[in-house]
Every structure is written in structure tokens, then in C-alpha cells.
Amino acid sequence: MTHTTYPKIGIRPIIDRRKLVKAATRHVTLGLANEVASFLSANLRYPNGEPVVCVLADDCISGMPEAARATEKFRREGVGLVVTVASGWCYPLETMEMNAEWPHAIWGFNGTERPGAVYLAALHAAHNQKGLPAFKIYGREVQDMDDDSVPEDVRAKLLQFAKAGLAVATLRDKAYLSIGSVSMGIAGCIVDDSFYQRYLGMKNAYVDMTEVTRRIDNGIYDPAEYERALRWVKDNCAEGEDPNPAELQIARDAKDRNWETVVKMALIVRDLMVGNPKLAEMGYEEEAYGYHAIAAGFQGQREWTDHFPSADFLEAILNSSFDWNGTRPPYIVATENDNLNAVTMLFNHLISHTAQIFADVRAYWSPEAVKRVTGETLQGDAANGILHLINSGPAALDGTGEQTVDGRPAMKPFWDITPDEVDACLKATSWRPTYMDQFAGGGYSTDFLTKGGMPVTMSRINLVEGLGPVLQIAEGVTVELPAHVHDKLDLRTTPTWPTTWFAPNLVPGDPVFSDVYDVMENWGSNHCAISYGHIGGELITLASMLRIPVNMHNVPRSRVLRPSAWSAFGTKDPEGADYRACAAYGPLYK
């Protein structure tokens, strides 16, 4: 597989260069910097599960020579974001970091003896004046000068900044792999190279779906892994009831061949994304390379699905945190090649390290409509109405909610998932033969119902002509309806597909989030991505780093962290200020 080198966090301890002041504050400044590095490494992981690496400057930075040496060291060590730590006054223009592509946070120690807050204020002013937005971190409570601890509020902001900054740096120089083209006229399938290059720092790769056919026909996949995968599928992926009328059902031997094909499709799409050295051993050196793709999309409908089995299995199993090789990081693959949803899933995954649910925003059910159709009154989290999130198969099996945290349903990073939880996710999933009037080539769709009570975040990137990309975010909770209520509602759509019932958190007086209907009404696409956890704050921080405005969200203001320059664009209208700041600075990569 393609080797990935993950970005590191650079830590810059800053100090006054005057001899006596330097001698008096060097020890405490280094102590603070080391505390920050230790805290971040202990609380953050890369997508492969390894602890995040922090790189400290060789010594305190008091002037331009040390600043230059630190920058050179960070470039050499593969740093992708930086945190500046100051316990007292320093010279801002002589100690600042000028790399505009490194997200930068500045923690100014709140102490009255030699206030780092004064340096923080001067440095952020210098950054703003030079067009280098930085994140300002200032603890609420005054600390004693010899206190080298990191306060809880500072820790929270450091974590939020670092999670978003690591995501930004991880995207850089990776690729999105488009397998096929536009599916069924969906605009989200149009791959905008400029968006990837200028906003994400990514490349684009393109492969026709006939390449998948060629690899199937010529056996360009690891035959030993294929046999192992097929056995695993037969043992663990239970085939559900065929929903087609008898005259449209395909024969058993054809269904068995479809299982073989969809397993091969999963292997091949993974190999296209990240490569496979086994193919080189088989004589396929070029095919072994892969495309260094951090995300991909498969067009499928209809040029593929009218003839071959649907891609639902490959999308669902690759997006999950486990397969025949055990637990592993998910491969982000979007159905119908909706690359904008793939990017959204990627954002969510890099923040949460969990698998993602890809879904249609299918319907808003008001309490009145549910009462009319089922005779029942919605209760609890569902009392104000719910959204029906459902799509044919790319929802990760983690989305069943069969994993647990503190005894409650959850979706977890792969390194925390137990074998029993993998088994439970598989047992909660039925693989239903596809509707032949929709997928004439056959295949299998996942069928499961997401457990209720999970805190989740629904999000989506959209491209708007004349504006560029915008991000929308809705934090909320999954809802579990009484079985007979779910059945009546589900049978009105496509009951062989995975369902997630979602209730967004409402905000009284908000123009969008005061009512569930308005969330549906203002959603910018037919698709969305659902991530475990309330990660809206981190997504807002990530979007600001990339200069992508957020056009709707229900994240409490206390969890909104943007560069300090954003306040210069207006403090009474944060959403408008976000738009103005993003327009003024432009995409991160010029």
C-alpha cells in the first residue's frame, strides 16, 4: 500500500532577547512549550492510530536567526501546522512565522508578571496587518509566573485548532480519484480541479469504469486475498430477502456470481486508490502504483449498474472500519462519484477518525405527518420532527450503532473497535438484492437501522457560482422510533437501504435551526455526510483555515474558533464576517 507520512506539529517557544529577561524566563517558557507538546501528543492520533508527533524548536526564539532556524527545522521534519507559546513580551516582527500555508495558533500566557498576552496581542496584530491569519489563544484565568500547566480552556482550544490543522495538512498533496464521471445528472459529481488545488492543496486523478472491468476480466487483483475475502463475506455478510417480484428475481447462480464480482470490485477500487505491491509481484507494475488517493468516488449509475452489479458493497465495506483483514482506517468512497460529499466525509473523518455515513437527505417528517400516517405521536428527541437519511449502500457498517462508548451506541476509531463490536455490526446488517428496476445488473445493498441516542454531525460542502465553496453543519442526535412506526415510514421509500433517523439540535430564534423543516429546506444538496460526535466546532475551524465560509450551523458560540482577524470583519454578525474574511483572504493555496 502507499506509504503515508503524516504532518507534525511545530512548537515555537518565544522569549524576550534581553539578557536578564531571557535568563529569567527561558526555563518557564520551555516548560510551557514542552507541556503543550506532551499534551497534544497524548491526546491526538493520526488516522492510522499512531500518536501525533510534535517537533520543538531547538531553543527559545528571541529574534530572526532563531526563527529562521526553527522554520528550516520544521520544513525538514515535515511540520504542517505550528503553535507559538509565549510567557512574556517578545519582539513580534522578529519572531513571527511567515509560512502562510501552515495553520498557526498563538498561546499567550495569561500572567501579570511578564504577560504573554501582550505579545499575543501584538503578534496577532502583526499577522493581521501582513495578511497571515492566526488563531489567538488566551486563557481566561491569570496564572502564576512559575505555573507551567496548560489550563483547561487553553487545552480545549489547542485541541480544536490542532485537529483542524492536522486535517488541513493531511489533505495537502493527496489526490481525489474519480472513477467514472457524472452519475444521473448530479452536479456534485462534477469534479472542479480548481477547488481541489486552491482550497485543499490536492490533485485529481481520473479513471474510466472500464478499468475496473479490465481488472476483473484479467484477474488484476491479489487472488489469495480475493479467496480470503470471499470466504469472509460468505461467513459474515448475511443475504437478506429479495424484494423483487418472483418474475424479476435473478437465479441463485447469478446471485452467487454477483457476490464474486462485488468482492473483486472492492479489492480493485482500493488498489486503484492506494496501490498494492502484490500486483507488481504478479507482473502488473503500473497497476501496483495506485493514485495516492485519500478519497474516491464511483459513478456507478447508470452506465455500470445497468450492466454490472451495483457498487453498494464496495462503497459500504470500504467506508467501514473493518473487513476481511480486520479493523483498519476507513477508505473514503462516495457513491455516484459525488466528490463534494466525499470531501465532506473526508473532513469529518480526519477530525473524528471514525467511519462516515453517506446518505440522501430523503424527507422531513413533521410530528403531524407522522401522526397522520402512523397514528403515533413523536416523543423525546424526535418530538419536533425528524429527517430521514437513507441511501442505497455506501453508509459504513459502523453506522449501525452497534459499537459502544460507556454502554451507549457509538461509532469509534478503528483502534478502539473490538471483535465483538465488528461481529455485532455485521449481524445487524442484511445484504438485500437490489431492486431490478433500479439496478438492472443486480448486486446487493446494505439494510440496517441506525441505533438512536448517538450524538452526530450532519454536514455538506457545496459549490456556488460566484461564491465558491460553502460548508453547512447541523449537530444533532440519531433517533430510534418504535418498530411499527419505523416500518410504516420506511416502507414508503426504499426499505432495503440503511436508515438513519436524525433530529438536529434546535436553536430558538435562529433563522434556520428554530425548526427541523427549515434545516431540510436550507440544505444545499440531495446528499449529506453524517459523523459520530458533535464536531461542528472543529469543522468551523477547519473551514476558516481553508477560507471556506459556513452558511448555516447550530454550534454554540463558545465552541466557534476562527482566526483572530475574523473579528476585524465584524463582531455583531459572525456569519457575515466569516464570508467577508474568506473573500478577502481567498483560498489557502494561491
TrEMBL record:
The active site is at E336 (proton acceptor), D360 (proton acceptor). It comes from Paenibacillus antri. GO terms for cellular component: cytoplasm. Residues 389-553 form the L-fucose isomerase C-terminal domain. One of its GO terms (molecular function) is arabinose isomerase activity. Pathway: Carbohydrate degradation; L-fucose degradation; L-lactaldehyde and glycerone phosphate from L-fucose: step 1/3. The keyword Isomerase applies. Gene3D superfamilies: 3.40.50.1070, L-fucose Isomerase, Chain A, domain 2, L-fucose/L-arabinose isomerase, C-terminal. This is L-fucose isomerase. SUPFAM superfamilies: FucI/AraA C-terminal domain-like (SSF50443), FucI/AraA N-terminal and middle domains (SSF53743). Its EC number is 5.3.1.25. Pfam families: Fucose_iso_C, Fucose_iso_N1, Fucose_iso_N2. NCBIfam families: fucI, PRK10991.1. Mn(2+) binds at E336, D360, H527. Residues 174-352 form the L-fucose isomerase N-terminal-2 domain. It comes from the Bacteria. PANTHER family: L-FUCOSE ISOMERASE (PTHR37840:SF1). The gene is fucI. Belongs to the L-fucose isomerase family. Its cofactor is Mn(2+).
